[in-house]
Amino acid sequence: MKRAPLIEILYTDECPFWKEVVKLVEEVNRELKTEAIIKKLKIANEQDAKKLRFPGSPTIRINGVDIDPEAKEAKAFIGCRIYRYENRLCESPPKEMIKKAFQRILK
User: Fold this and answer.
1) Of 28, 64, 87, 101, which has fewest CB within 10 angstroms of its CB?
2) How many domains does one find in the chain?
């Protein structure tokens, strides 16, 4: 029996985008019928950031893999994260980026 994928959403309370990212991940999960387990991980301090190699909020990992193939794991960073998608900068990952990551990582 195949294990359900694990989707981790790492965030900070200061990030204004993480709740919308949760909604997008849930939506993509339903659309693609992946039946993934979605886990939210609050990064409260630098110690948490270091331990989880947190590159900024929001971060989405699918089975431990960052959805951004260009991502560089940070040693510790508590600030906001910027994504580059289709030659534009985004304050959070667009739905299409999330969907492509699901398809790429879970194939």
Assistant:
1) 87
2) 1
